[in-house]
Amino acid sequence: MVSKRxxxxxxxxxxxxxxxxxxxxxxxQSASNSQNENSELNQxxxxxTWDNMGDVLKYGISIEKYDSKKDDFVLCYEHExxxxxxxxxxxxxxxxxxxxxxxxxxxxxxxxGGLEExxxxxxxxxxYKAYRPEIRSVSYPLSMSSTIYLDDLxxxxxxxxxxxxxxxxxxxxxxxxxxxxxxxxxxxxSIYPEEILSIDEKNNREVLFQFDMRNLEVxxxxxxAQDSSGLHNEFNNASAFAIKFKKAVDFDISADYLVPIILxxxxxxxxxxxxxxxxxGMVRLNFFPVKRNWGYIGVNLNVSFTxxxxxxxxxxIDGNLLVGHARFVYQLPLFRRRFMIELHAGGxxxxxxxxxxxxxxxxxxxxxxSMDLSFSAGLDFQFYINKxxxxxxxxxxxxxxxxxxxxxMVMPFAGVGWQF
Length: 420
What we know:
The protein has helices at residues 83-88, 267-272; strands spanning 10-11, 15-17, 34-36, 39-40, 42-43, 47-49, 58-67, 72-80, 90-92, 100-109, 121-127, 129-131, 134-139, 147-149, 158-164, 180-185, 190-191, 195-199, 206-210, 219-227, 240-244, 250-258, 261-264, 280-292, 295-311, 316-334, 339-359, 363-364, 368-384, 389-402, 405-419. By secondary structure, the protein is mostly beta strands. The strands form seven sheets. The chain has an eight-stranded antiparallel beta barrel. A five-stranded mixed β-sheet has the order 14-21-20-16-17, with no helix packed on it.
């Protein structure tokens, strides 16, 4: 039985013009004919294919070309398949179809030679004249090189290519020239421009693209110009483009003013009469060995010092509170990496150093020294004034586990830093 299923036939795009710059000749012109000193026509096979219908005797293929003068379709190709073509469900169209708009009809004949009219189907397609794009240079005008450094604060994501046969993208498609797609490509991904800023429509030699900086991932790429047939430029040094960080790793150091505020545990409020200690400072070191477009991952070392003192009239108490932690850090760059949001969390120690009661007549208690396990987590905002100098504002929560108590405190801070 003849299958009741018929899928749409497909015309494989087939006219390839290499190095063409002037107007191409007709598609059925011999490949050896010279068009001009800068261009030549190269043809390959036009193959028309469709899905297998099962046990059939043959297929009848007819193709009509749209004639704009007559405003109608005119028959230009008619063929009944032989045994091999029927088995392969494909025919080689000769002579080749020139560029234009076409419609096709496929008739199915059962094994008795009868036409299965209910299975007759058709559709439309376009044959484009294919031009092989050529890219002679890819540049990032801001740095006048073929590299974007993602950590440059002035990045604008504008990339320029120069070459030949650089036609308009799909929005400007027509049956003669087709359209050209543009994108960056490597083995992992393809990155498409956000918009075309300008294009040399007269000579087709230059295109200016706007890329979204958030979509640019680190890697080595080729800039691809691909026409509607799938024909694209050669991949060589001229089409190479790199996206990287100027520095493989970042090292930041900052000095901050810190105000520890004890939230729970009454030891210090009861003995020293306060839970806010403004005589404090902190040093932070950040190291980021992993830098990607989606953020930086690294480690943080921070050490804070707080001087604690109270005078009760008949006696006084003083001592030092030191907190040191090693933490994992994640930074999210925003606004061309001028603004950073940082999350960090980790553990370390809290050191209660030399807490002493001072009484009249030079009588002092034995000093209290205790080093205890503690953990902290926090949020930090950084704003870069220039490529290296930044200011920051943040807060940590620190919890300390002492044999006699559990102390929790919030530690807001503000400061200035430098990136090496």
